Amino acid sequence: MPKIVDHDARRRHIADAVHRIVHDKGMESVSLREVAAEAGMSMGAVQYYVATKEQMLLLALERIGVWIGERIATVAARQPTPLDVLRTTVLELLPLDEERRYLNRVGLAFQASSVVNDNQAAAMRMGYTHLLAFLAEQIRAAQAAGQLAAGLDAGKEASILYAFAQGVVNAALVGHYTADEVTALLDEHLGRLSA
Amino acid sequence: MPKIVDHDARRRHIADAVHRIVHDKGMESVSLREVAAEAGMSMGAVQYYVATKEQMLLLALERIGVWIGERIATVAARQPTPLDVLRTTVLELLPLDEERRYLNRVGLAFQASSVVNDNQAAAMRMGYTHLLAFLAEQIRAAQAAGQLAAGLDAGKEASILYAFAQGVVNAALVGHYTADEVTALLDEHLGRLSA
DNA sequence: GCTTTTACCATGCACTCGCATGAGAAAAAT
DNA sequence: ATTTTTCTCATGCGAGTGCATGGTAAAAGC
Fold first, then answer.
1. What does DSSP assign to residue B174?
2. ipTM of the complex, rounded to two decimals
3. What are the residues with a C-beta under 7 Å from any atom of nucleic chain C?
């Protein structure tokens, strides 16, 4: 029998191929044949690691969540204050450079498809819950540090901030805002939360 | 030759069928055959009024924009103050009842597809420009009426507000927020803009 | 009344789709 | 050394796709 390989690595490789296709041509262009070609594998090999197209899409969605989470953890760990963590986390969600635009484009496609797919919707909700909890935690820490106004409702502010970030993505991805305009809007909003 | 019919009415009828399919099953399920069946027409008849699938999708997107615009115009005309107009306009964008959820679901699908389709993206940008201008106008009117703080940048505030609304839609549509929660977030935000 | 036009239709065509399935080679287990 | 397992692959199958195209009946125009 062949040398044993790392199944998770194969699956990540497949998910990466899905991301690239979604990014370039949209969700409808994701087919087994396209993914196999993009991944440099045969269709049969793709099917070996991921049994159905639905599973493949869910895997790709989950990988996006992990990717974003890792980016946030990396930059957050470097920030000196809770308000910096908060700001930087939100900046990670905005299409301010190539990698973030890529994540946003792919993410938006999954946003739409998860509306009509229960498994994807469940994965999305989990993502929301985690990220909103993290944002609320940073808001509370910034309040405790005297950086944000003490009277703010951290949970609501987290929700408003995250909604703002997601909404700005929509407009920016079709070319309505520049990266500088996006950052300025965020800072305008954060400015009014300050102590 | 047959009795002459209203081509625009036929096209609206086709767009309605597209909306229903997008709402129920997502953008990928839109096919000529599905649309024809949903519209109660033959494929050939659909092709007679709308030459290509791409045109059909663009038509459906434009119809959504018109629909939302009409809803907003109708409710805005009934509001007593600029701040009421502003609030009500934003409420129109949120999934607070069946029709608005329907519009949001279909709108989000088009949001995603317009990222990889230039014609759709151009239509989207036009929609952004109009709606943001309207929101900014109401903010300025509310400032002049002493309802909102005089120092606010109306353009930026319109952008932040609209981004918030769009972003909240994403989460709400996958079941993260209830309608009441959504309204409460909006009022929290509007509250802080008050004079 | 005759001709032209319009609306609606059915179907062909070349292609693509997801999933299923079996083949075969080589590493792993016994 | 033999058997089992794993990986990779090619291909079949039934279904579906967008677009093109020609047919026909009836209203509109003259």
1. T
2. 0.94
3. A 1-4, 30-34, 43-44, 47, 51-54; B 1-5, 7, 10, 41-45, 47-49
The domain of B66 spans 61-193
A131-165 b/e (C-beta count within 10 Å ≥ 16 → b): bbebbbebbbbbbeeebbeeebebebbbbbbbbbb
- The answer to whether residues B57 and B36 touch, using CB atoms and an 8 Å cutoff, is no
Instruction: Give how many domains chain B has, as a whole number.
Output: 1
Cα gap A27→A57, rounded to integer Å: 9
| A48 in a structural domain | no
- Determine the distance between A61 (CA) and C25 (C1') in angstroms: 35
Digit-by-digit pLDDT tens for chain A (195 residues) are 789 999 999 999 999 999 999 999 999 999 999 999 999 999 999 999 999 999 999 999 999 999 999 999 999 999 999 999 999 999 999 999 999 999 999 999 999 999 999 999 999 999 999 999 999 999 999 999 999 999 999 999 999 999 999 999 999 999 999 999 999 999 999 999 987
Domain assignment of residue B167, yes or no: yes
Q: How far is the CA of B119 from the C1' of D30 (A)?
A: 43
Q: Which nucleotide is nearest to B56 (CA to C1')?
A: D18
Answer yes or no: is A78 within a domain: yes
How much is the pTM? 0.95
| Position B119 in a domain | yes
CATH number of the domain within which A74 lies: 1.10.357.10
